[in-house]
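Recall that a protein's primary structure is simply its ordered list of amino acids. Everything else, from secondary elements to tertiary packing, is in principle encoded there. The following example makes that idea concrete.
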Amino acid sequence: MLKNRSVPADVVLPHLTYENVDDALSWPTKAFGFIEHYHYGERGGRIKGAQMHLGDGWIMIDNARPGRASPAQVGHQTQSLTAFVDDVDAHFDRAKSAGAGIVEEYGERQYGAGDVEGHHWLFSRHARDVSPDEWGDDRSSPLSRQEIYLVAQSASQTLAAAGSRNGVVGDHSRKSRSRQLAA
């Protein structure tokens, strides 16, 4: 995969919406220890978004706009983020003293907190290695990456074949697939 210094996350880069990034930008630093990588917007004007990280975990924060609102604006939780930290006890103390609303405390080394706009955060430290069957996984054995690839490849071929039969060749858009599956 090509590396990009402006977007260092290699797998998932969550985007969190705040009513006003200018007002919210200091919160993840003060309460949770995030470090700002960069921010963007109009020179000398309002900040439109920023990229931040906590260790190797990266987030983008951006302003609310039509079709995008913060949990505080919509009145309910919109997602939850989990961040793994080395010293979850010290992290808990920092967040609580910064005014984070502690919404959950767990028996393991983790806690949940709400930020200034209602985003739900879970901070955790692995206490031990737990196999999936200890959590109730009832599969006889987890699928390997190769098995997942083969299942996805088979599904893709099935969709392509269905498209050929319906006169749709090479169009794999969501709208096209919906038409193919409805046929």
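Residues 15-128 form a domain with the 2,3-Dihydroxybiphenyl 1,2-Dioxygenase; domain 1 fold (CATH 3.10.180.10). Confidence is low (pLDDT under 50) at residues 158-183.
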